[in-house]
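Two proteins were folded this term; both appear here.
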Amino acid sequence: MTDWSWIPPRSLDADLRMQPANGLDFELVAAGPRRAKRAVLMLHGFPELNLSWRHQIAFLAERGWRVWAPNLRGYGATSRPEGLAAYRLDALTADVAALLSALRTESGAEEIVLMAHDWGGAIAWDAAMRRVRPMDRLVIMNMPHPYGFARALRLSRAQRRRSRYIAFFQLPRLPERLLGARDALAIRRVFTGMATNAERFPPEILDIYARAAQRPGALTAMLNYYRAAVRLRGTMSGRDPVVDIPVLLIWGTADTALGQETLDGIGAYVPHLTRRYLPGISHWVQQDAPDLVNAHLADWLETPVPG
């Protein structure tokens, strides 16, 4: 199991377990009352863990939410299937559908929220577009709508330049060697080098990310998200791009991987969109500025869903 020492002691009824879903076992942090009117599933990004939600887990649990934060397939101690096809977007979205069903069954929640960042955001957009399970709200942090991202890659030279790392990740073995070298120094630096508030990433937090990335097969699984997205084209075909539930988009404007041009035209796909920009905050938004993010979450989540 992963090091759980980061779980805030004020988290209510913390439950650390392996959760079966979609034929896999997910390493899961659950917090808050087991039976609750409101529940949230949190999806992390690359090269993160559910650790990335450490500031939000306790915040929402203390407000009566049932909170589930899994490590996605291939991450931490979650099942790590082999082969590129196991990391197609369809497979990742099927994981989320199964987890949402399990969360609703456990909590009995009347309101279900999907909250996601980075690669978790890509999966969450897909789950919402495909309507794989009923959900009431969607919260996305620093991940554009996929159609907007595709448009930016076509039209924006700057975004193509920012996304060059994706081409590097297509190489066999070399990315794994470089990311894992010197006690996963590159993994550590991807956080501290991009963060606005590097003090939010102390050595004990970076150690957890680095140790998880160095598990046998972990880096290959993590990189397979990018490899499957590029090589197994067509995973987005047939999707209705419109997300018709309320969506909160929280965006750190100092994101060096995703430019704000990726958000151009998003209103055509998300008619019930609320945007909250955090000037000067990095891609790691919920870790880099947790107090601001939590304030926006509290404000938006307490606003009734339009009837």
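Next, the second protein.
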Amino acid sequence: MSLETSAAPLGRVIAVANQKGGVGKTTTAVNLATALAACEKRVLVLDLDPQGNASTGFGIDRRYRKTGSYQVLTGAAPVADAAVGTEVPGLFVVTSSVDLAGAEFELVDEDGREQKLREALEKQPLPYDYILIDCPPSLGLLTLNALVAADAVLVPLQCEFYALEGLGHLLRTVERVKKSFNPDLAIQGIVLTMYDKRNNLSDLVASDVREHMGDLVYQAMIPRNVRVSEAPSHGKPVLIYDLKSPGSQAYLNLAREVLKQEEEWAAA
């Protein structure tokens, strides 16, 4: 991949990815973004999943998603024009619609198809400290664009029996992307989701993941929590829906860890 020296400056670009569905990926993208904004960071969530659940999670009606990630990816609109505000100060969203499902087919024969998102992000200065990309639950062209555009990958990992097997598949994909397109791509971290302290399996999986992945695993674990599950149906991040819930506090702790991690990396 060739990067122009005149590329516009970007904040930290983090792809929130896991090829397995139902692991809390979108929930993590929405609520980590909200928690970072609560820590006074300017944040953009780029919804790259045709299902558009991240957009729904911020209460953005499908009728108003006229310009979004599809237009950004195909070059029809710049990121700045596609970003819309939310009720969270400092937090913006590039929405998704079903049109995005066709983008993979439209781009498949184009040269540099895996770099379309990176090119879009670099076209103009963007006033964000963090850009979180909510990837679809697959390893297709949309996720590849996210990984090529990203500085790092954050992996939500459900506390279930096959967790490490799916993680291994994703990590091998990351290595292939590093080798072919984005040599600076790093693993931001792994966040354990749907943790149930009443379930011995959750503890066993958490221990197993920490044994294999070490410091890449965040200390904050996202619990199974009714309020986290309810919040999207109200079009709100759980931090807005119920700040005092265990799920909200877990995402605030995760945001603090991410920020501390960034400080340590900057000082190294």
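Confidence is low (pLDDT under 50) at residues 1-6. The two ends are 26 Å apart (CA to CA). These notes refer to the second protein only.
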